[in-house]
Amino acid sequence: MFGVKRRRLKSPFRHTSIVWQVNLEDYVIKLAWSPDGQWLAAAAIEGPITLFEGATGEMARVLPGHEFGTTTLAWQPEGDLLASAGQDGQVRLWDALTGLERATRPGGAAWVEHLAWSPSGDVLASAAGKVLRLWSPEGELRFETGDHSSTIAGLAWRPKGRDLATIAYGGVTLRTAEAPEQARTFKWKGSSLALAWSPNGRFIATGDQDSTVHFWYSDSGQDLQMWGYPTKVRELSWHHSSRYLATGGGPTPIVWDCSGRGPEGTKPKMLEQHQDYLTMLAYQHRGPLLASAGQDGLVVIWEPEQRQRPMARHEFASPVGQIAWSPDDGRLAVGEEGGLVTVLAVD
Which of these, 206, 199, 205, 204, lies nearest to 241 by C-alpha position? Predict the structure, then answer.
């Protein structure tokens, strides 16, 4: 098992400053920056979606979201379309500039849990129960399948590519945007909970129900397993170089070096600071910094390549469920279970 040495640094919070804070007075279920960083979309668990000016926190507009609750958000790359999904079983497309609803489409089950735009922005993937659907930006249904063996637990497109990966019980399934009916599967007798492509598209990582991490070579399907986590693994994030993979599965962010022949047989870096289980991990898009958030209300900024001690930390009043780096990596949005949305400047 990985050892966990719990301690708390006494140094003050440095290298960051609070840009703005707004209280939604409801659990923050999702934060998403627009591609140009102009807007921050914040979804409350009861349904409403608020668009804030990214620089000032000024409220631009409130979208009604979804009856019974919004589950996730996804911005179209290089566009003004915001996709949302919810517990009403619908996928909705919103014009961020006007706030108008462009389309509403059924996701295929009572809850739609996952959304992902292709890197080119011409295909939106949605997952509801066992049903995968692919949509055009106009809301036209392009493909549908319900052949997953269990509920789809995650989906993600290959960065700069046309391959879509989904996870369910039994392994990883790959499809292409051009021929989605032709699927190949990397089989594994278990359940995965999280999915992340490396930025170079060479690797797929999955966080698993059995407290392991799978590391797949996307071209061959060869895999290996990292084990020893205290609990199931839901938190994954890749460094922009594709060399480092940060994983959760407990109170300690664990960073693996995936260079050379991969992480097999290597010793990971363990970043000790949190006093409770992690909720999210997020590397910057192009920078060296890793942000971690936890049930203890802590947000910690790390530079794992240089040191295993935090470079900055901040304590919030309630557990932190969401963090998201702005496209320019200069700001970190934080969403609390208690409803507070905070944007931090990181220098």
Answer: 199
**pTM for this entry:** 0.94
Q: C-alpha dihedral over 322, 24, 75, 241, to 10 degrees?
A: -30
**For residue range 191-226, what is the model confidence (pLDDT) as tens digits?**
999 999 999 999 999 999 999 999 999 999 999 999
pLDDT tens per residue, range 46-79: 999 999 999 999 999 999 999 999 999 999 998 8
H/E stretch holding 11 reads none
Rounded to a whole number of angstroms, the CA Rg of the chain reads 19
Q: Average pLDDT of the chain?
A: 93
Please report, in angstroms and rounded to a whole number, the separation of the first and last CA atoms in the chain: 35
C-alpha span between 113 and 330 (Å, rounded): 29
Per DSSP, the residues of 114-135 read EEEE-TTSS-EEEEETTEEEEE
CA distance readout (Å), 290 to 15, 159, 307, 315, 319: 14, 19, 12, 17, 18
The helix/strand/coil state of 274 is: coil
